[in-house]
Amino acid sequence: MPAIPFICAPGYAFAEAWRAALQAAMPLERIVALESLDDHARAACDFAIVANPDTRDLATLAQLKWVHSVWAGVERLVEDLQHSPVEIVRLVDPQLAQTMAEAVLAWTLYLHRDMPRYARQQAAGQWLEHDYVRPQEKTVALLGLGELGLASAARLLAAGFQVSGWSRSRRAVPGVQCFAGDEELPALLAGADILVCLLPLTPQTRDMLDAPTLAHLKPGASLINFARGAIIDDQALRAALDSGQLAHAVLDVFREEPLPAAQWQWQHPQVTVLPHISGPTDRGTAAAIVAANVGRYRATGALPVVVDKQRRY
Question: Residues 90, 228, 248, 312: which is the catalytic one?
């Protein structure tokens, strides 16, 4: 069988670790770096495993039919291959959903228990206790009710929070007040004490959280963005924080990553900056899922579920 190239961004620090994990999950396959393949070997490859690849590398595989990303988010890959016949398979890993749900709960509790305020008090040398608010008195609103949103909702409900959720199309989730469509988004926002963004980046969600949208939030609400940076209008966010419309923002994703040192988010007293760590992919579970998909393809020729390039996920 032809070797399977693992193609990643130049200089990616974990390239060898990924190749090792994929090889361990597929002992009968040969997982190699693209540069180790000559022209004849490249011509025999009809699929590849990728992590933010350079499309110029993909173009060296003349018979390429599909690529399997080891990430759940594939918007840049979709953009690069929008007009290509090459199909894209994204990672759908239940472990990723649980890891993200853990982060959603952790940083929701950070906001709920007023950790930013106590950190400011420590810096100022203030010993001051504030009233405790039960989680049952707080509503956490989830933007996105896909696999990540559903797993997060379950964790939040178990912790005692009121949970609401929004999606493009109508969903029914036990214990969750569900909203759908543009016309119901303001009502979700108006009831949110903490808003958690878990949406994919699409043409419809780019700059979705702009000034008019953020204005629907109740004064003093907080925001967690674990989705993509471009979903938020950064200047609108800064204005909402400065005015007090938003009390705090936990930001794990940005338009440019790593976040440049000169960006305002680093120094803003009402912003917590995280280095894109809310939902790290587990190489072991991810490699097993990729291996199962490759095995079925080898056996039947059938592709796994592919990304809808129009919807971008």
Answer: 228
